[in-house]
């Protein structure tokens, strides 16, 4: 009897040990397939990301953390102001004050953001301090400024002479200063360090806000999201479309199901176009970085670029898109049929008549015709072509 009981115990233990071994084996295989990290990598929105991604890359090459890398990269973007759209000339509210927004998220899911922050040159560092020190995730307006000053941030005048001139021009052309919104950019960055940890950060630029409406770039899940087991995503340009669909979290969710980074961005874009058809008239782009080092991007319209840094290169890449915006020239009723444009067109896109016409399919948008028109009857326009 004792021998029989011992036999059953051994058999049962052996059976369960095989099950446990198989479970660990399956878990290990799944982990290798989905979550194996490959770093260091930095990806940033837009073509002015070369200097910022270089700065972030140096942190990673020195065995630094991804959270330090994205903060450093965004500080470089805020400092360098390389591109004309990346200057304080266009960063102001409808009340004429320079207002900045930034957010940051680390591998542990901790998040911090500030919105409508005035007088502080590097809002991303304030956002990181909110993440580290505060029980809240968002500070806005006067509260964010007070918090920054209490923690040693220097108050600076950010409104320049160019900013003031830009604001005057904006007020002259805005029919409704409470509703006018520009189609501007958000600088977003994602990083994967050698430990396999992901972090992300975003900062605003060129944002004209109405009073009390700031903070659209500070929403977790919409413009930025990190899941350290899967990957991260961030958005750029008009963020209202992104907020309505919680798009960056959706992208990460797609990736968690095995969808590639590029395809996940594409699905988010197509979902926004389906739910919000009018969004096709604006630019919107996503970048994504998976835990295994795979990157991807997609945008509504052509023209969105992103920067990719790794140990071997730092390069600008044209993102794929759903809608192609083709620029071409048209001739209006002021045309005198002088023939100057006909002689000047290098691709023979202009046909004769009482009023000359330009074939939009042949036009290369070189502008040579407009340069020689004596009555200024030729001007550029756009055509939307759905590519998918």
Would you kindly provide a brief summary of this structure?
With 388 residues, the chain is an alpha+beta fold. It has 11 helices and 18 strands. The protein folds into 2 domains: 41-318, (Glycosyl)asparaginase (Glutamine Phosphoribosylpyrophosphate, subunit 1, domain 1, 4-Layer Sandwich); 325-386, Alpha-Beta Plaits.
Q: How would you describe what is shown here?
A:
With 388 residues, this protein is an alpha+beta fold. It folds into 2 domains: 41-318, Glutamine Phosphoribosylpyrophosphate, subunit 1, domain 1 (4-Layer Sandwich); 325-386, Alpha-Beta Plaits (2-Layer Sandwich). It contains 11 helices and 18 strands. The strands form 4 sheets. The protein has an 8-stranded mixed sheet with strand order 5-4-3-7-6-1-13-14. Strands 9-10-11-12-15-18 form a 6-stranded mixed sheet. The chain has a two-stranded parallel sheet with strand order 2-8. α8 crosses α9. The longest helix has 33 residues, at 2-34. The chain is globular. The relative contact order is 0.12.
């Amino acid at each position: 009897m004792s021998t029989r009981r011992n036999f059953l115990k051994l058999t049962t233990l052996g059976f369960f040990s095989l099950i446990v071994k198989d479970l660990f084996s399956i878990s290990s295989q799944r982990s290798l397939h989905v979550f194996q990290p490959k770093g260091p990598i930095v990806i940033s929105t837009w073509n002015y990301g070369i200097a910022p991604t270089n700065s972030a890359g140096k942190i990673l090459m020195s065995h630094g953390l991804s959270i330090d890398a994205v903060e450093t990269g965004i500080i470089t973007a805020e400092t360098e102001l390389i591109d004309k759209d990346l200057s304080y000339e266009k960063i102001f509210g409808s009340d004429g004050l320079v207002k900045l927004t930034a957010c940051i998220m680390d591998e542990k899911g901790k998040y911090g953001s500030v919105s409508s922050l005035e007088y502080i040159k590097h809002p991303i560092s304030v956002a990181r301090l909110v993440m580290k020190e505060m029980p809240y995730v968002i500070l806005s307006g006067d509260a964010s400024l007070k918090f920054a000053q209490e923690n040693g941030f220097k108050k600076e005048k950010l409104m320049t002479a160019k900013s003031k001139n830009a604001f005057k021009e904006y007020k002259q052309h805005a029919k409704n200063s409470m509703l006018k919104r520009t189609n501007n950019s958000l600088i977003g960055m994602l990083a994967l360090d050698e430990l396999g940890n992901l972090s992300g950060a975003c900062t605003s630029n060129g944002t004209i806000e109405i009073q009390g409406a700031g903070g659209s770039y500070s929403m977790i899940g919409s413009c930025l999201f990190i899941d350290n087991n899967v990957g991260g995503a961030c958005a750029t340009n008009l963020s209202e479309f992104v907020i309505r669909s919680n798009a960056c979290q959706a992208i990460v969710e797609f990736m968690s199901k095995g969808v590639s980074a590029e395809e996940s961005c594409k699905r988010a874009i197509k979902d926004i176009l389906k739910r919000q058809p009018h969004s096709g008239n604006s630019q919107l782009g996503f970048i994504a970085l998976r835990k295994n080092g795979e990157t991807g991007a997609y945008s509504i319209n052509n023209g969105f670029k992103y920067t990719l840094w790794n140990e071997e290169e730092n390069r600008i890449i044209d993102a794929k898109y759903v809608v192609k915006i083709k620029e071409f020239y048209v001739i209006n009723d002021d045309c005198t049929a002088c023939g100057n444009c006909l002689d000047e067109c290098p691709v023979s896109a202009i046909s004769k008549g009482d009023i000359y016409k330009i074939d939009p399919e042949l036009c290369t948008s070189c502008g040579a015709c407009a340069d020689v028109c004596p009555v200024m009857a030729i001007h550029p326009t756009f055509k939307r072509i759905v590519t998918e």
